[in-house]
Amino acid sequence: MTIYKHSILLNRGGIGFASFLNKEFNVLPFHLNILPLEKLIPVEKTISSKIPEIRRELDRTGYQANPLLAIKEDADRYLLLNGSNCFEAMRTLGIRNVIVQEIPEESDQCRFLSWYHLVGNFSVEYLKGLSEVLNCSLEEVDYDTIWDHDDHPVSLTCTFLDGRSFRLIPKSENLIDRVSCLNSFIEAYQSFSTHMKIYPDRIFIESSEIFNLGSALILLPCFGYSQISELARAEVLFPPDCLNIYAENRVVGLDFPLQVLNSKVDIEEKKEFLRELLRFRMQSDRSTVYGGRVYFMGKSRHQKVRRPEPKEIKSSDTELYLE
């Protein structure tokens, strides 16, 4: 990461990145890459009800908005750490390639954390009984604490005024049994409750009304990269919305055109197109950095209408244009 870390110039209106996208660089910045879909191995289950919605959004916009997060296992195998629903939607649309952001091996800029699930319509007593049946336990915890995969508490800044929060702890020492327990526990409430994934470092709940139906926050267990890799080799999937991968220098709002991803030109030409698109995005006053960790490359995600890209955005060596 240091090759471009010191060449980034921040300003109030956006990001000045002209020097760090010099064509002398043979490697795409931010560890971005374009991969054939068949090289990606999802590690989480999909939520089938979300696939049609994502397909419609892809059809409507014609863009892959955000790179998927992946880590390289070998030359022909990458573990897909997030975005399994988007991956499946693109696969069913027949899209050949996908933009990914790779996590470098032994990176110190990535942490494997866990999510809170907000569960409604079930009583705490029911959830406790269910956990015991599935060889788990629920330990009541403060909401402003989360654990990493080494079982170390990580303090977070949150506002939480009511309700009870619990940490789910599988009792088995066997890794596959632990994930099987986790799948069974989440499947028990996922289809029958008001369930949502909580961002633990920036959720603000100003009213206790959401807990009137006996809701609770469930903090899922953490898993490290070696465990994720072991389970992938055993073809055991995590439940949806389980893994919370915290990666710095995350790129969002890239808006890469699907027509380029699905074209028949060589993948190296597509990467050259991506380099030129990044050059344009980084020089735009609509690009910015959030918290020094997330690089947002386009307009607000709340804007529904996309402004046409200029015709000049193309690979210098190909005829790939944004249209």
Can you tell me the number of structural domains? 2
Structural class: alpha/beta
Strand order of the largest sheet: 3-8-6-7-4
The averaged pLDDT comes out at 75
Shape: elongated
Q: Please give the largest β-sheet.
A: 5 strands, mixed
In CATH, the topology of the largest domain is named Conserved hypothetical protein from pyrococcus furiosus pfu- 392566-001, ParB domain
Poorly predicted regions:
1-25, 156-161, 201-214, 300-323
CATH superfamily of the largest domain: Conserved hypothetical protein from pyrococcus furiosus pfu- 392566-001, ParB domain
- Tally of strands: 23
Number of helices: 8
Q: Termini distance? A: 32 Å
What is the top-level CATH class of the largest domain?
Alpha Beta
Task: Please bin the fraction of helical residues.
Answer: 10-25%
Whole-angstrom Rg: 21 Å
Question: Proportion of β residues?
Answer: 25-35%
Which CATH architecture of the largest domain? Alpha-Beta Complex
SSE blueprint and pairings:
Layout: H1 2-5, E1 9-11, E2 14-16, E3 32-36, E4 40-42, H2 51-61, E5 63-64, E6 68-74, E7 77-80, H3 84-92, E8 97-102, E9 110-114, E10 116-119, H4 124-133, E11 136-141, E12 145-147, E13 153-155, E14 159-160, E15 164-170, H5 175-190, E16 195-198, E17 204-205, E18 216-219, H6 225-233, E19 243-247, E20 250-252, E21 256-257, H7 258-261, H8 267-283, E22 288-290, E23 294-296
Helix pairs in contact: 2-3
